[in-house]
């Protein structure tokens, strides 16, 4: 039976999926430009294209991070506090720059990692 405390990885995975779907559907016009110019076009010409690609790839990296956390949780490995501090630090910095964003969704797992003593 799975441990009910093992929610952090799944939370991050779900957040990353929502983030990536948002990147795809909210910027559909920009994706059209990207595919019309070719996938190997120079993104320095259009900063919006660079922003959308960064937004998209951040979601993918967040997904990989969530999978890693879920694997550690399912292996009953105590998550190192440095992961919690790193996630919290990155989230706070991101919230300073973009307070009206989904970065707030990363605060619960960051605090949970820091609070957790044992799985």
Describe the protein in words.
- The protein is mainly α.
- It has one domain (8-115).
- Helices cover 70% and strands 0% of the residues.
- The protein has five helices and no strands.
- Helix 1 (8-26) packs antiparallel against helix 3, helix 1 packs antiparallel against helix 5 and helix 4 packs antiparallel against helix 5.
- The longest helix has 28 residues, at 47-74.
- It is elongated, with a radius of gyration of 17 Å.
- The mean pLDDT is 89.
Reading the helices and strands in chain order gives HHHHH
Distance between the termini: 13 Å
- What's the total helix number? 5
Radius of gyration: 17 Å
Shape: elongated
Strand content: under 5%
Structural class: mainly alpha
Q: Helical residue percent?
A: 55-70%
Counting structural domains, the number is: 1
Largest sheet: none
Q: What is the average per-residue confidence, as pLDDT, rounded to a whole number?
A: 89
Unreliable runs, pLDDT <50, ≥5 residues?
Answer: none
> How many strands in all?
0
What oligomeric assembly is this protein in? single chain
Task: Describe the structure using short key phrases.
70% helix, mainly alpha
What's a quick, concise take on this entry?
With 119 residues, the protein is mainly α.
List the helices and strands and how they pair.
Layout: H1 8-26, H2 28-37, H3 47-74, H4 81-97, H5 107-115
Helix pairs in contact: 1-3, 1-5, 4-5
